[in-house]
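Intended use. Records like the one below are meant for learning the mapping from a protein sequence to its folded structure. Do not use them to infer anything beyond what is encoded.
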Amino acid sequence: MHHASELHVATSDFHSKSTRIAVAPPHPEPTDSGWYLASGPELPLIPQKGDVDCDCLVIGGGWMGLHAARRYAELHPQASIVLVDAGRIGNNASGRCMGFVIDLAHNPRKRDFVEDIKGNQEELFVNLDGISYIRDAVEGQGVECDWDPQGKYHSAASQHGVEDLQRFSQALDKLGQDYTWVEANEIQAITGSRHYIKALHHPGTILLQPAKYLKNAVLGLPANVTVHENTAITGVQFGGPQHVCETPAGTIRAPKVIICASGYLTRFGFFEHRAIPLYTWASMTRQLTKAELALVGDKEAYGLIPADSFGTTVRRTADNRLFLRNVYSYATDFKTTTADVARARVQQQVAFDRRWPELSQIGFEASWGGLLTLAQNGGMVFGELGPNVYGAAFCNGTGVARGAAFGKAVAELAAGRNSRVIDILKTRASPSRTYPKLVTSLGVRFVTALRFRQAGTEV
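Structure written out for the chain above:
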């Protein structure tokens, strides 16, 4: 395992050079997120003009970056903080998830999932810290996001799905977690679908509208934070007394930089050849009519996570839509196309047909993909990457709660604070090197296709 002290070794050669690095900006997404389209008016754009100086620059306006900027500003109310995002906040990778704020990840296929009590307890502690920080924005600042603390349903449509749920329940038992078994008649009444044969309800997860939260949380940031969207970093030169980051409109100079750019952190000269960029795909219906709502169950909103992780995730939302997510695919150089979206949409239509055949002819109003960055060894980036350069990345899924916790913690670290969350994250393994890109691409494509087939009716 690579501990925090080794993280500095992995990047020290780069920082000793203090050379300019050209940073390739993210590829534009081929389609908008359905969450973003349904989230209301766009944020007012504040253009960056010319050269800007600030006390701390945060790169990336997702779950990590947004909460890092907020926390650093809270700890240093007299400091000037600039937060930049290459696109529109809420339409970035963070706004493209399914809106589950999960306290304990569901990973029964991990070989030591049931036995890894210490790891699961630490995971739970970190995620609960993230949830608490998000809840504080909702309850303390009035950030509107369709907050719904009802928990989540782990749903099975096959016998092997039921077996996955039973393994998950064993881990919950060992952790002393509450849960309830939901039999076929009840889950079918909740969803209006005969597709499901058993479920497990696990409290603790929050459902929310991710794009709505991200946009409204920007509006609730402390007054000493300035946000620039559509502002990609195109070049960097790290080194004291100020780091210099180039943008299309000029430069941003800051003595302290926090990079929360997911897998794109590797383009800043850190942990190169460590990211495995995956995309997950989702589709959204239009708002359902009163008659149509009668077909999708007697619960006004819910979230279903498939027992098999390659199955179909489902949300019925507060604004009366259905969201379905399935299909994982490797994204060479983090790039996807409209053809990729169209291929995934076909599979989401199959899932729609299986679950609600009386309704599925309405199709979808929007389809999109969202970036998920993995490391081959499940490792993550957290800590000081070089003198006064900090980073958090590679949350390997469950990104909402983890992202908020990681962002809050890396800001506290940058501010000279300490916490149990920081101590836990410092012990996590760093991302290992991937195999050559072609090998990784072929391997991921083979494994995801195999797992997708094996998931069967869980899709």
